[in-house]
């Protein structure tokens, strides 16, 4: 693994399938994903499972370009502005994220533990194992108010910016209160 972490969960194993030059199905990659950290001092790892830089996604590059390109390695940002991202995030007890908005529609699933979603109007929703959330470009923060680690999976897809009374709501990041 590229970095160590304190999470009690195992690293995320990623299997990528594709095709041989004669059209047969094959496994292109099968390995644990290295964790990464948005802030180097954080102990909560994030795993970028897959990134597609456009929609519809290009899924034949091992045939057309002679090799499979792992786009997730070249897109360390929260969201790249197009296509889609799939990631896993382990959140330590007591951790609070920055307040943020991406111009995406995000599908989230709590795999282990519980997490509090807080919106900028003050609403708080506690999500438990198996709960899902559809995040539609709103300002929010995530709070692990429990004493246990939480693991969540997210799929983020490019979306059209929200416009309210002539104002466009773009991507934003602020420190949490």
UniProtKB/TrEMBL annotation:
Chain ranges of the Cupin type-2 domain = 89-155
| Residue spans crossing the bilayer | none
UniProt-recorded name of the protein: Cupin-2 domain-containing protein
The UniProt entry, under Gene3D superfamilies, shows: Jelly Rolls
Please give the residue ranges the record annotates as the region Disordered. 1-34
Write down the superkingdom of origin: Eukaryota
- Please report the organism this UniProt entry assigns to the protein: Favolaschia claudopus
PANTHER family named among the record's database cross-references: CUPIN TYPE-2 DOMAIN-CONTAINING PROTEIN (PTHR36156:SF2), SLR2101 PROTEIN (PTHR36156)
InterPro entries in alphabetical order: Cupin_2, OryJ/VirC-like, RmlC-like_jellyroll, RmlC_Cupin_sf
Among Pfam families, the record links this protein to:
Cupin_2
Q: Which SUPFAM superfamilies match?
A: RmlC-like cupins
